[in-house]
Design brief:
By secondary structure, the protein is α+β, with helices and mostly antiparallel strands. It is about 30% helix and about 20% strand. It has helices spanning about 10-25, 65-75, 120-135, 170, 240-245, 260-270, 295-305, 310-315, 340-345, 350-355, 380-390, 405-415, 430-440, 450-465, 465-485; strands at about 45-50, 80, 85-90, 90-100, 100-105, 145-155, 155-160, 200-205, 210-215, 230-235, 255, 270-285, 320-325, 365-370, 395-400, 420-425, 485-500. A hairpin with a 2-residue loop joins strand 6 and strand 7 (about 155-160). The two termini are about 45 Å apart.
Amino acid sequence: MNAVKRRAVAGVLVGSLAVVLTGCGKTDHPAGQGSSTPAPKDMILKVATADTVTSLDPAGPYEIGSRTLQANLYQTLLTITPDKPTPVPDAADCQYDAPTIYTCSLKKGLTFPNGHELTSSDVKFSFDRMVRLKTPGGPAALFGSVASVTTPDELTAVFNLKKPDARLPYLLTTTAASIVDEEYYPPSKLLNDRAMGSGPYQLTSYKAGRQAVLAKFTGYRGARGALNDGVEVSLVPDSAALTQAVTTGKADLALHGFGPTDLDKLRSGDKVQVVEAESAETRFFSFNFKSPVARRPAVRRAVAQLVDRPALVKKAYADHVTPLYSVVPPGFGGHVDAFKAEYKEPNKAAATSILREGGLAGVVTLTLGWTPSHYGPGARAEALELKRQLEASGLFKVNLRGVEWPQYQQLVKAGAFDLYHAGWTPEYPDSDDYLVPIVREGAVFQNAYRSQNANKLMDQEIAEQNNLDREELLQNLQRVLAHDVPALPTWQGRLTVAAGKDVENVGASLNPLSFVYFSPLRK
């Protein structure tokens, strides 16, 4: 790379040294020297989580534990803030110059904690590296519409698209789009246990499977500046350990892994605050269009007409989740309660009429697949409650088939069930990511649903750059799915955390994609 690009070396070293000293804490002046007033104590927050962290490298595995740390260590070109559901500038200001040309202008003076300048060359390196690595379980597939990234100058990165893609600004807010230092990261392999990003925090210590220590990065210049001086993140085994940590004061914040019983105890006590936000996690039952029974529209629509979501979430989850009436949950652009509009309230007479008009007389037999562990302890109760509701109508006979995850995936692919339990948490904060897995041929849920109308609407919403027009297309697509019922949405999850009574801004730290930004927290 161009050595001229980088640097007034003396200034860099001084800046880097200052960062290191800041991360080590403030020192009181010795008696008789300087001010007699002690320096304020650093505000270090302690966090406990039951997450598994497999990689600190944003080009690596993409599970929620890794994303939580990455979101706090790295900067992206754009970001999502609690007060605004659409992307705002973080490292750059971006705009479409043409339907297939997206230009990002970097802020001047951006640096990494090691003092290296952050330029457009780092942006290009980060994206090229991610695509080149194609890590299994990683994020490379998200950027399939990007043909190349070019760098006309040190402060300009241009995304050249294969075809128009309105989702790109949202994709650029994800940890998949994190900017890494090209002089620090190897181009052809992951760096799982170290990090050099330009986010609100820098990594000062990491023990895989045990602890990550983050110090405020004073050189961060973006929308998510830290209000605390650092965070110590401890990885604990289970809900009991989370509960103990936050109730004994060993943790200021506990997240990811609470069981419903422990949460109820925390809510009923007075030791901590329990804060909730709607999360992006959803559950639904997918119909298999390879099945002669489930392929019939009358069967799918009759099931949709009978399901009682409030009763289901109460029975299976004790109201710890929220009834969901669309494949796209509230909080995402273009959401509409399409199933509520299509089917109103559960109604046996209406379901009977649907079946009869579809040429079906007598009881319809369905095989319902579910898996015991992958979707949590409520999965069995959810399947049982759906069975109960359908059979109570006298219109259906439901045979349950519970299978562990590896075999379950194979049976779903083979079309062994008429309908089956499934879940989804999107990879990027846009409604489109709930629709692709259901609508597109060969998509995640492999239910063999085919609809020219749905595909046409999806092509249009991806290419539409007017946000209001795009939301209308998304709403129309949700209505098509409510009418066709390839999938029956049941509930939206909640991201729930427990914190000490003195911790402020907890709600502002919760991201809809289920990870937590530490920067708003203070005490």
